[in-house]
Amino acid sequence: MGASVDLPVLNRIYVGGRAVLPLLAVLVTLGLSGCGTPGAEATPSPAPGQQRTPATSGNKPAEPALPSAGVGANPCALVSRPEAEKLAGTSLNSPVLLAETCTYTAPPSGPTAQVEVFVGETAKNYLTAERGIGHDLRPLSGVGDEAYIEDGGIFVNKAGRWVSVKLVRSNDPAENNGPLEDLARTVSDRI
Question: How far from each other are the two terminal CA atoms of the chain, in whole angstroms?
Fold first, then answer.
């Protein structure tokens, strides 16, 4: 006699497989996003209403234009690569843009450094999380409508638009307060 098939078991396998497909699609997309021509650097897409600027030399893409930060603003346009490098105290790779986040990282051969720029709800949620875990957030007067600084980070609100910048660096965090405060004022002017 032939083998019988347990239909409830097959149904669970089918439903379970369907549940995994969206996750698999995301993983494949993320995996493929790293594929490309060796040595080529990705250039972040411009925000709506912005134009891509031509490359200035060689493989190095031009820095994004620094527009006003409307809804859906490109976080990479709020802090330029040279500004991120000055803050980090070292050269950084080209920015990686993902939704409301822009990340500049140091090359593996260099010192530890990273600058992350968050906009919109992501920045506001980051501030809420920092408050929730009891971090020492000090108000910055004269910056936007509301601004805070903590060791390694700033939060700026202007006209209801939130921007946050997080710095990771292997030095005394107190050394970064002056440059972070200066950057908060610069970012506030761009919002």
Answer: 75
0.85 surpassed by pTM: no
Which contiguous run of DSSP H or E holds residue 161?
Answer: strand 161-169
User: Using an 8 Å Cβ cutoff, are 100 and 121 in contact?
Assistant: yes
pLDDT digits (tens, 9 = 90+) for 147-157: 999 999 999 99
Cβ atoms 147, 140 nearer than 8 A: yes
The arrangement of secondary structure in 75-190, i.e. its CATH architecture, is 3-Layer(aba) Sandwich (3.40)
Tokens representing 40?
A: 């080529």
Q: Using CA atoms, how far apart are residues 83 and 98, in angstroms rounded to an integer?
A: 19
Could you tell me which of 191, 177, 188 has the C-alpha nearest to residue 143? 188
pLDDT value at 1 more than 80: no
